[in-house]
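Researcher: Structure prediction, please.
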Amino acid sequence: METYFNLMLIRFGLVAGGLVVLALLVFAVALMFKRRGRLDEVSRYVAPVVRVGLRAVARRLEGRKNGAAWSRREGGR
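Model: Predicted structure follows.
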C-alpha cells in the first residue's frame, strides 16, 4: 500500500510540475507579445477560442450537476 501512495505522490508531483511549467510558458509568451505591441492582436484571435472552450466545460459540468451521467450519446467516453 505504501508503494501505491508513493507512486500517486510522484504522479501528483509530475502533474503539478507540468502545470507550473505550462503556466510559466504561457506567461512568457504573453509577455513577449506585450513587449512587441501585438498582445491586442493576439487576444482578438484567442478570445473566441477561450469562450467556446469555457462554454463546453460549463455544459459538461452542468450535466453532472443535474445528476446526468456523461454518456457516449452526448460525446463522452
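Model: Helices lie at 2-36, 39-65.
Researcher: Thanks, that helps.
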